Amino acid sequence: MDISRRHFFKISGALTAASLVNTDPAAQATQAPAIAEDSYGCLVDTTLCVGCRKCEQACNERHHLPKPNESFEEMTVLENERRMDETSYTVINKYYPKHIGTLTWRNRPTFVKFQCMHCNDPSCVSACIVGALTKQENGSVIYDASKCIGCRYCMVACPFQVPAYEYHNPLTPEVRKCTFCYQSIKDGGLPACAQVCPREVITFGKKPELLKLARWKMKNHPGKYVDHIYGEYEVGGTSWLYLASEPFETIGFPKLGTKAPPRLTETIQHGLFQYFAAPIILYAALGGIMWITGYLKGTKEVSTGETAGRGDLR
Ligand code: SF4
Ligand code: SF4
Ligand code: SF4
């Protein structure tokens, strides 16, 4: 459903009214998205990655992102830990082993590919009050710029600090992050990064199969992997799963609980919405922001015909 500005005001008015008359916390409960049993995911075996950055390049090209200042052949960029931003939906980082004295095959750097984890119960989706971010049945968490009001709650909510914002774009800024190549998957294709990887680091498939593969690898290569599939349980599970030979907290992964953050915060949210008049102010303010944002976007489209970036789901 496309929420036009007029619809937004109607809906916000109705919601505000509802918040005043309905004091049952359960009535405002957010539901965890229904995840198809066989939704897609990717298993990243970090022990195979050589840090060639071809996945970064393929992602940038598929999504028509700007070329980086330094070429994708430049390996010195790996010496500094990087984050995804509005021009890079995925980055490779390099981590040196912590225990050099222990002479095992592990004494080589670990290269880790980061991107949106496409959580099963995404905090960004829960935080977005206008439904600009949605969890799809195939596992992707996708963004609809036409609904976004630029509040950036999604950025605050994400436990992996993934969504980036186009601060450099004052008129039509958008939130940017990995789309899990939503349209390609829908059309029976592969994510660009998984397709291009020369080392088969990234296995794309149905999540139950990926978990089976991960367990098979761990069983058949004793001592190679730490006994942990990152993303199997973190924040309620994620579509992207990882295997590694080093403890995950030493290679850039946050230590997180198993409960999805939206399930932890909903009690607080319900309390707030039950007892405060905040919804009136909040919806009025956000409605104003949405109208201005929409007006500016409309102005730019009329003057330039530009729609690039919107619904960028390839
Ligand atoms: S393309 Fe494959 S091997 Fe190269 S950096 Fe990406 S994940 Fe690693
Ligand atoms: S990693 Fe962050 S941006 Fe990606 S789905 Fe999870 S909460 Fe949303
Ligand atoms: S799944 Fe697609 S959007 Fe996400 S990192 Fe890979 S190529 Fe980029």
Describe the protein's architecture and organization.
The protein is built from 9 helices and 9 strands. The protein is α+β, with helices and mostly antiparallel strands and 314 residues long. The chain has one domain (33-262): Alpha-Beta Plaits. Helix 1 (5-21) runs antiparallel to helix 9 (278-304). The two termini are 20 Å apart. The structure holds iron/sulfur cluster (3 copies). One iron/sulfur cluster (SF4) is lined by residues 49-55, 92, 111, 113, 196-197, 199, 201-202.
Task: Describe, in short, the structure shown.
This protein has 314 residues and is α+β, with helices and mostly antiparallel strands. It has a single domain (33-262), classed as Alpha-Beta Plaits (2-Layer Sandwich). The protein is built from nine helices and nine strands.
Biggest sheet, spatial arrangement of strands = 8-1-9
Write down the CATH class.
Alpha Beta
Tell me the distance between the termini: 20 Å
Report the uncertain regions: 1-29, 273-280, 289-309
What oligomeric state do the depicted chains represent? single chain
Topology:
Layout: H1 5-21, E1 40-45, H2 54-62, E2 91-95, E3 110-114, H3 123-127, E4 133-135, E5 141-143, H4 153-157, E6 164-165, E7 175-176, H5 182-186, H6 192-196, E8 202-206, H7 207-220, E9 240-243, H8 261-275, H9 278-304
Parallel strand pairs: 1-9
Antiparallel strand pairs: 1-8, 2-3, 4-5, 6-7
Helix pairs in contact: 1-9
